[in-house]
Amino acid sequence: MSDLTENILSNKLRTTLKRIRENLMSEEEAAETFDTRNKDKIPPPTLSSAVNLKKVEDLYGLAERVAAAESLVFLAEQFELLHPHLELLIPSTKRAFLQQFCSQTVSQASELRRPIYMAVAARTIDYEQVVTLMAAVKWDINEIMSQHSSYVDILLRELQVFSMRLSEVSKKVPIPKEAYDLLWEHCIKLANHSFIEGFSQAKKCTNGGRALMQLDYQQFLSKIERLTDLQPVPGKEHVESYIKAYYMLEPNLEQWIRSHR
Name one GO biological process term (predicted). Predict the structure, then answer.
């Protein structure tokens, strides 16, 4: 799961954040010790004591995260609107710097949504528990099952609780569609990753077990489509492709493995 959360920052965004930290942030740890003579830098940001990012009921401070992320996106949009007017107000020799600032920094504001909302999606569902429950499933069965596995219901229940908490947070602060869709995209992709992780731990798998994998995932898809408006379900082709790979002959399977590294 860590690879999904750790790689959420694009290279461009990572570079932008590093540049801001090195060029604009003072090395002083507290505002009280900040040297006011250094007018080109600002003290490091600190989180208000009134903000609680640890309560699962509040989705780990989602309301505050939405206010922060969407305010930044709004400011970036306003700056883009002002860009043509600013070019007329500054010397022509400085316009290249303005263009660089817009293309390298302002343009990255909306990209911050991804890591900000991933911080919520990665913590609100116990994906590790799902993988652990999948490890207890017998995949070497001989009969074709008509009932999906219980871990699917547990995962779906957690996602239903997430949906209800999301509705409660939206009563405190409006959640834009971009943020709403991104939260669900992260949750679904993390759930899909859990399916693949759980399936990959099967020591033995028969045709009946492969059919059960398909049944479990189809049950998940049928229910998740009722919880969110995202269509198609993000990343479902990766899970379906993984299950279908069990049916491949050895030469085709080797090719599939090479192409999905």
Answer: retrograde transport, endosome to Golgi
CB 216 within 8 A of CB 223: no
pTM value is 0.86
Query: Within this chain, do residues 88 and 193 fall inside the same structural domain, yes or no?
Result: no
Which residue type sits at 27?
Answer: E
As given in the structure block, the two tokens for residue 109 are 């504001």
Closest CA to 5 of 111, 109, 120: 120
Place of tokens 């090395």: 27
Containing structural domain, residue 165: 124-248
Task: Give domain status of residue 177, yes or no.
Answer: yes
pLDDT in tens, 195-216: 999 998 988 888 899 999 999 9
Neighbours of 53 (CB within 10 A): 15
